[in-house]
Amino acid sequence: MTPDPLDAIRDACASLRFAPLPDLVTSQDLHRTPPGALHRHRADALAHDGSLPVLFDKLRTEHGPGHRLPAATGFLRATLREPIFLLSASLYLTGRAPLLTPHSLVLPWDTARCRFGTPAVVDTRLAVLPDDPAADRTDTVVARDEDDQLRMAAEGFVATVGPLVEALHAHSRAGRRTLWGWVLDTLHFYMLNPARYLGRDAEQAWELASRLGDAVVEAGAVTRKRPRLFPFAPEHPQGTWAVRGTCCFDYKGDPEHGFCTTCPLKCDSERQETLSEWLRDPALAP
Length: 286
Prior knowledge:
It is a single chain. The protein has 286 residues and is α+β, with helices and mostly antiparallel strands. The chain has one domain (5-225). It has helices spanning 5-14, 27-32, 43-48, 51-63, 68-94, 146-172, 176-197, 202-218, 250-253, 268-280, and strands at residues 23-25, 38-42, 97-98, 105-110, 115-116, 120-122, 126-128, 140-142, 228-231, 240-243. The strands form three sheets. Strands 1, 2, 4, 5 and 6 form a five-stranded mixed sheet that branches. A hairpin with an 8-residue loop joins strand 9 (228-231) and strand 10 (240-243). This is Aerobactin siderophore biosynthesis IucA/IucC-like C-terminal domain-containing protein.
């Protein structure tokens, strides 16, 4: 039998400077591990059992920010950063698409620290292409072609994330397009980031991210504007960044910090200057 395809994801991410993978575990592993101070919330339950508003308010009260919009996007960052990275990075780096389901995403809440821990994805299945060496494994599903693979991945992703977005929208009053915009922006960035770090073709990575984004919108996500590439030093292998389509509103929670470098509200000339400084001195980059 071919090696565990999840090992390929772990190996591909091992050399990256930024690689926030979720815990990839089996259901047996999860049940054998005592939760300790963690309360494990399955994504499907969290979206419907009334826990999300309670945890959102606790997180905001204990850690801020006070403004509801950055608090809402911060909640998405705390719960969905790793699952989004898993989907984007796996597709880009290995050509395999994790198939998320509402019951496979587990979000651990640390009751002592009043914050979420690293999410877990349980019994991960992957959509692979017909010529993939792992196509004969029981934990893979063979897609007809790349479009079918992206459709399968997007439908599972939206089925998992959509109810959480809806519950967060209902409680925080943040707009659906704002919340989905953060998700779609992050899907794109988490393909671009590995490409930049590895010195690969940023436009090629962005094209795949855009196709995934199209599939996610087709599956039910809504947004006003998609992110865009921002080549600030085209002659340099790391001279391409991107601009979000949707503001994350962090500046409302921390006015002194101002707009993020990738913020659509920031003017491109200031963005160009900041990114050029980062290229000259990578220690300045966040």
